[in-house]
Amino acid sequence: MRKPRKRSFQELVMENKRQLLNDREAIEKIEAKLEQKHLGKAE
User: Fold this and answer.
1) Buried b (16+ CB within 10 A) or exposed e, 3-38
2) Where are the domains of the chain?
3) 20 to 30 Å CA-CA from 34: which of 11, 24, 28, 41?
4) What Pfam families does its record include (predicted)?
């Protein structure tokens, strides 16, 4: 039985990116968080 191959950090990042691009809800949550962060710094 073969040992599962470990993925490199770069491969994990690319996979995450692909999943996020397909998940509109997650993108909107991140955008809202960033917007709140910006608004907090503006005051």
Assistant:
1) eeeeeeeeeeeeeeeeeeeeeeeeeeeeeeeeeeee
2) 9-40
3) 11
4) Fur_reg_FbpB (PF13040)
Q: What is the 3-state secondary structure (H, E, C) of 7-42?
A: CCHHHHHHHHHHHHHCCHHHHHHHHHHHHHHHHHHH
Q: What CA–CA distance (Å, rounded) separates 30 from 19?
A: 14
In sign, the C-alpha dihedral spanning 6, 12, 15, 16 is: positive
The model's pLDDT over 3-27, given as tens digits with 9 standing for 90+, comes to: 777 889 999 999 998 998 889 898 8
